[in-house]
């Protein structure tokens, strides 16, 4: 394999070749990335300093914001820089690193969504047992297991990528390195690797989506036994989580369940879950969450008071 691999660098074609559109890409995604980092860092700080946001739900949201920041950072900066650069070369090692980071943080995002669904299930369906089941030690163990699962997933992806020999064209018709566009450049029969790719990434996305949808259907069904006020609060929280699940997992499933088939909209769909979802998550969780908004107001008032003294 190593003797056949003559390609040591790749050229990313990006989202567009048009100079005017490239400038628009630079401006739009610079704004998106900046807002993503600021929004997620704000949530991280709020959860850390606020005494009212100490429940397991916000514990998982804290790690979701960290993951969103890292996930977007693994993709967006290169897209932004490449949009104004004529030399869009990425070395083989950098490309493999991006594949690993993309799946590490993408996998962590999926596992965190599952953990948040479990938390909501226990809180709504087993409220009396909630403090015991979702105690801090258990939540920490769940986070550790999520990181281990993400690492195993990303390791399997990078192993598949490293098995690909590249001895011909080195132009990747994408704005980032991922196994799907790399398969098209490999000078070997990729049928088996395609199957393994779908079995791993495709199955992870689709099975997680089905699991989460069934979980929230069970949760929403159980709300019929709650009071009107409790039902309204739980419904608002669950709706927020369902929105995030749809925003992330539907585009993922669209991309990763059919690696051997490509469509013209693939790059835009990838943009949506790699850059759009990390940008939207802070908005979704703050605009629809009264506790987070109240914590932000308290922090802002405390800051104004401290500056006026």
From TrEMBL:
Superkingdom: Eukaryota
Residue ranges of every copy of the G-protein coupled receptors family 1 profile domain listed in the record: 39-285
Keywords: Cell membrane, G-protein coupled receptor, Membrane, Olfaction, Receptor, Sensory transduction, Transducer, Transmembrane, Transmembrane helix
Native organism: Chrysochloris asiatica (Cape golden mole)
Compartment(s) of residence: Cell membrane
CDD domains named in the record: 7tmA_OR4A-like (cd15939)
GO molecular function: G protein-coupled receptor activity; olfactory receptor activity
Protein's UniProt name: Olfactory receptor
């Amino acid at each position: 394999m190593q003797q056949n691999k003559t390609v040591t660098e790749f050229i990313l074609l990006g989202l567009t070749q048009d100079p005017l559109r490239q400038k628009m890409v630079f401006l739009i995604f610079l704004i998106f990335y900046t807002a993503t980092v600021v929004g997620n860092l704000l949530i991280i700080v709020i959860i850390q300093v606020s005494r009212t946001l100490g429940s397991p739900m916000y514990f998982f949201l804290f790690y979701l914001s960290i993951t969103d920041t890292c996930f977007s950072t693994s993709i967006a900066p290169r897209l932004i820089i490449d949009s104004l650069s004529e030399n869009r070369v990425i070395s083989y090692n950098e490309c493999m690193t991006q594949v690993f980071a993309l799946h590490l943080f993408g996998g962590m995002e999926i596992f965190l969504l599952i953990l948040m669904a479990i938390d909501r299930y226990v809180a709504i369906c087993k409220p009396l047992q909630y403090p015991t089941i979702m105690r801090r030690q258990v939540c920490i163990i769940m986070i550790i297991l999520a990181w281990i699962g993400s690492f195993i997933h990303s390791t399997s992806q990078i192993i598949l990528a490293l098995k690909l020999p590249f001895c011909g064209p080195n132009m990747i018709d994408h704005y980032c390195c991922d196994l799907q566009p790399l398969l098209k450049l490999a000078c070997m029969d990729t049928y088996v690797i395609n199957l393994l790719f779908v079995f791993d990434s495709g199955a992870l996305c689709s099975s997680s989506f089905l699991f989460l949808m069934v979980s929230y259907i069970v949760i929403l069904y159980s709300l019929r036994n709650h009071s009107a006020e409790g039902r309204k609060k739980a419904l608002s929280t669950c709706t927020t989580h369902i929105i995030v699940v749809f925003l992330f997992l539907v585009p993922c499933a669209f991309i990763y369940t059919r690696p051997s088939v490509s469509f013209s909209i693939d790059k835009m769909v990838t943009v949506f879950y790699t850059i759009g979802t990390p940008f939207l998550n802070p908005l979704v969780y703050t605009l629809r969450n009264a506790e987070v908004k109240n914590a932000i107001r308290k922090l802002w008032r405390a800051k104004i008071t401290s500056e006026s003294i």
